[in-house]
Every structure is written in C-alpha cells, then in structure tokens.
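Re: [ENG-882] Designed sequences occasionally contain unexpected residues at chain ends

Forwarding the minimal case from QA. Structure tokens:
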C-alpha cells in the first residue's frame, strides 16, 4: 500500500506528511533532504472506503491486488510548500483550493495537528468612530469575504465600481442599502434586517451606501468578486 496520510497519524515516526503537518502546525523545524522525490499517497478515509467495498465484494483490483482508487503522486517539496501555505493562510487570509481533492484532504490533515490552544486566530479590524471593517477570507477565484460593523445612525459607502461586484447580507441590526445609477437621479432603497436574512446584490455602475437605522450595531457580511487590490481598487466616490 502507498504512503497513508490523514488525521491522528503519529508524527516523527514513519510518515513524512504527519511529521511535516505536526511540525509546521507547532512552529517546529522540518528537514527536507530531497524536495524532488515523488511520493505516492493515499488518504485514510479512501483506504477505509476501499476496505468497505472489498467486504461488499466490490474491491478495486490493480495488478492483481486490492488497491485504493484515489492515489496522489506529489513531489515532496510541493507537499511542504502546500502545508506552509496552510500555516500562512491565517495571516494572508487565503483559502486553500478546495476544488483540488489532494489539497482538501491535506488541509484537513494539517488542521488535525493544530495545538488545542491554537484553534482561533485574530483578524485585523480597521476601526473608527463609525464602526469597523474586517477582511475575513480571500481567494483569487472566488473573491473576498469581509465583515462590516456600522454604529447606529452611521452611513458608509457612497461609491461605485466598474467591474467589482458585491453581495451584502445584514446578519444583525436594521438598516437600508441605497442605490443610484451613476447617470440617473432616482434612488432605490432596500431595507434590511438581521431578523430576515436577505442577500442584496451590488451591481456595477450604481453608487451605493448603507445606513444603520437601528439602535444597535448593524453587522453586514460583504462578499466582493475579487480580493481588494490597492493598486487597482476600482472604487469611485459618488454620493447616492
């Protein structure tokens, strides 16, 4: 059977993946003698699934032996690079490519080696008298998720975008999201509340703002189609 990886495998024993995940998750050094070595790996859940298939008389046969359908051939150096990217994702807010089966399984494995006292990590809150804005997750393929908190009576926004589009979801508090097409005068209003979850699309070419109409903080989950790029913010001030 190829090298097996997955949660609870003993590190610093006979599994390079377990050792790398454990050491990197615990800020311990690792040693890679030859990053060009190709490893053939199978995930523990896939191994268990094949045992179940075999007991049901549906084994996967390869070269005359029962085998595991899902196998991954990965360079040792690439494994280390991916695991280190998991560690760094807490700082750069990136999300691993969960569309890649190996990356998804390796990330699950990595998380199982986090120290019990290190499951949480802080985010950088940009705060002022109006409230706060905090970036949460970023992906080049699926955009960015942020959390916006507005104090009572506060209006935020008053800008529009050429290509960047967004989705707003108020999860606590009460308010209104206003729109105006940049070459028109008519203003459109969408009243929103954490008591009735409703997603509001933010189309391009419409200047928009949010106003907290309640007596408590209004919390909005904001998705944008791309991570914020300070060199090309695609954001233009214009009063609604």
């Amino acid at each position: 059977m190829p090298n097996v990886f997955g949660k609870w495998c003993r590190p610093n024993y006979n599994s390079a993946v377990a050792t790398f995940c454990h050491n990197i998750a615990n800020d311990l050094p690792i040693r890679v003698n030859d990053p060009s070595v190709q490893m053939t790996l199978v995930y523990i859940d896939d191994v268990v699934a094949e045992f179940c298939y075999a007991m049901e008389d549906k084994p996967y046969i390869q070269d005359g032996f029962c085998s595991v359908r899902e196998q991954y051939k990965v360079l040792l150096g690439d494994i280390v690079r991916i695991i280190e990217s998991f560690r760094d994702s807490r700082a750069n807010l990136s999300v691993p490519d969960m569309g890649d089966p190996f990356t998804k399984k390796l990330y699950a494995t990595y998380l199982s080696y986090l120290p019990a006292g290190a499951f949480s990590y802080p985010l950088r809150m940009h705060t002022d008298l109006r409230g706060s804005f905090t970036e949460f997750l970023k992906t080049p393929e699926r955009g960015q998720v942020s959390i916006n908190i507005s104090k009572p009576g506060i209006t935020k926004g008053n800008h529009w975008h050429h290509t960047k589009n967004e989705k707003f979801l108020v999860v606590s508090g009460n308010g209104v999201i206003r729109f105006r097409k940049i070459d028109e005068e008519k203003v459109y209003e969408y009243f929103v509340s954490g008591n009735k979850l409703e997603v509001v699309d933010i189309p391009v070419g419409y200047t928009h703002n949010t106003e907290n109409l309640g007596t408590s903080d209004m919390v909005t989950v904001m998705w944008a189609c791309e991570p914020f790029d300070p060199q090309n913010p695609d954001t233009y001030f214009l009063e609604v």
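QA comment: On inspection the terminal residues look reasonable. The longest strand covers residues 131-139. Proposing we downgrade this to a documentation issue.
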